[in-house]
């Protein structure tokens, strides 16, 4: 009976979507979707989180001496408790706080970092071209997450890449590039661009959601993560968890001895691709990463940035609700 109801609900949505799309402007449609999500999901979860706590399952690998900080931080996350990061991402049209609950994890990972002049990169802009693999569908909002990162990190430079050349764009503090993550030469060409040669503090991999694509981009990108930086691979399928954990234990923990790896299994609510791989690069010994006193205001100033990293997570308040 439940399967029939879900099928009917899905059919109704398919029938209504073309009508809604013709009637409302993209901006109004995004506003309506955000308000609907806020009332039907965000507010009920906020109230529920006062009484209910659901935490992710963490499997940790590598960098044993420093591992406790990353693991403990992730284990304290209440995935039922929505944050400002959830609101901002959903407002811009990202699914990180709607179809998934990644924003609760990000709020813990980036706590105390929002006003630092970081360099943030995300693979996968959210193509709305149905012919592109991992398309978000016709209602997708390309660049939604990048604009969310820009709002959350007011002094950061935000970069992105996608295989769909038709959605590449450039805005204030945002610049995007072409990349095919199944082609390792394309990934190497991406990181050789002048804007990215200095490395980045945060990498979010939200591209093609296959094991082969994830591995390809991870192996060609970890060296471009600054000391203390965070790398996250999103949307890992449940049936790939054991394969990932085996690779982390037998290969990556030995190949990257100064990196911490944490596989995060989130309560899925029926979503089979609701798991994360979180990687933290150890800070270079003997170096003290100091916050830049003056924020970077343009992409042209990025070459003047001092390697910043994320060596320590400050305990000051984050931007959560």
Question: Could you provide a short overview of the structure?
Answer:
The chain has helices at residues 2-23, 26-48, 67-75, 84-92, 102-109, 144-152, 184-191, 211-221, 241-255; strands at residues 57-61, 119-123, 157-162, 170-171, 174-178, 200-205, 225-236, 259-265, 275-281. By secondary structure, it is α/β, with parallel strands linked by helices.
Question: How does this model look, in words?
Answer:
- This protein is α/β, with parallel strands linked by helices.
- It has two domains: 1-48; 53-304, Rossmann fold.
- The protein contains nine helices and nine strands.
- The protein has helices spanning 2-23, 26-48, 67-75, 84-92, 102-109, 144-152, 184-191, 211-221, 241-255; strands at 57-61, 119-123, 157-162, 170-171, 174-178, 200-205, 225-236, 259-265, 275-281.
- Strands 1-8-9-7-6-2-3-5-4 form a nine-stranded mixed β-sheet, with helices on both faces.
- A hairpin with a 2-residue loop joins strand 4 and strand 5.
- The longest helix has 23 residues, at 26-48.
- 40% of the residues are buried.
- The model is unreliable at 1-10 and 285-321 (pLDDT under 50).
Shape: globular
In CATH, the homologous superfamily of the largest domain goes by the name Vaccinia Virus protein VP39
User: Helix fraction?
Assistant: 25-40%
Span of the ends, CA to CA: 38 Å
Strand order of the largest sheet: 1-8-9-7-6-2-3-5-4
Radius of gyration (Å): 19 Å
Strand content: 15-25%
